[in-house]
Specification:
This protein is α+β, with helices and mostly antiparallel strands and 230 residues long. Helix content is 30%, strand content 30%. It is built from four helices and twelve strands. The protein has helices at residues 6-16, 35-47, 57-96, 166-171, and strands at residues 102-106, 109-110, 118-124, 130-137, 143-148, 155-161, 175-182, 187-190, 193-203, 211-215, 219-222, 228-229. The strands form two sheets. Strands 1, 3, 6, 9, 10, 11 and 12 form a seven-stranded antiparallel beta sheet that branches. The chain is elongated, with a radius of gyration of 35 Å. The termini are far apart.
Length: 230
């Protein structure tokens, strides 16, 4: 029976593919094979097979199935990449709809809105016997207004300063809010959350590419950290 030298067969296969074997290690110009490369390799393999011991049909089908699987995975990856890109565009479009609105952020600095009012929320840990709010000029620490809300139940409690003097509105002053509560253990301060205007929206860098909203007086914030909108 005629035998075929594996080295000769390999050399013939390389020659058919237009690959020149050189001394030393040569770095491949491509990291992956495409569909046309695979078909060319498969055709050459069939042409150079031992006629007395041809490739088994099962092996041939297995190679085709394996390539189809890899191709399918690549197509799925490409589709997922497109979906991620479209999802990012949809998220930034949604965030853009917040422009001109106000977002509730943890903080004690705020400004009057377009209606000349300042709104916020207190998260009371338990029932209070006294709940007091004091508003200051954030730059000079001058006391502007104080309000006693009285006893309040535990949970979220909204507050607002609606009759802000015109001179404060004209200057668009930054206002600092201090909350003082008494749950039975004496007066203690509580950090409020303030509604602040959304100025712009963008997509952050990195793998997560989180959607950011630029909030007046607070800078860029992850939109997922926003508590509420109005």
């Amino acid at each position: 029976m005629t035998t075929i030298d594996p080295n000769s067969a390999q050399a013939a296969l390389f020659e058919k593919l237009g690959i020149t074997k050189q001394a030393g290690t040569q770095k491949a110009s491509k990291d992956t094979l495409g569909q046309s490369d695979f078909l060319k390799l498969m055709t050459t393999q069939l042409q150079n097979q031992d006629p007395f011991a041809p490739m088994d049909n099962g092996d041939f089908i297995a190679q085709m199935a394996q390539f189809s699987t890899v191709t399918g995975i690549q197509e799925v990856n490409n589709s997922i990449g497109q979906l991620v890109e479209e999802f990012d565009q949809a998220r930034i479009a949604t965030a853009s709809n917040l422009l001109g609105h106000s977002v509730l952020v943890p903080g004690n600095i705020g400004r009057a809105d377009e209606e000349g009012q300042l709104h916020g929320v207190l998260d009371l840990p338990e029932q209070t016997f006294m709940t007091q709010l004091t508003y200051y000029d954030a730059e000079t620490n001058e006391k502007l207004f104080s309000e006693d809300l009285g006893p309040m139940g535990a949970g979220l409690v909204g507050f607002s300063w609606e009759n802000i003097p015109q001179d404060i509105l004209d200057l668009n002053k930054r206002i600092k809010i201090e909350a003082l509560i008494d749950t039975g253990n004496g007066p203690e301060q509580l950090s409020p959350s303030i509604y602040s205007k959304v100025i712009s929206a963008s997509v952050g860098s990195g793998d997560t590419k989180q959607v950011l909203v630029n909030v007046e007086d607070y800078g860029d914030l992850d939109v997922s950290s926003a508590i509420n909108f109005r």
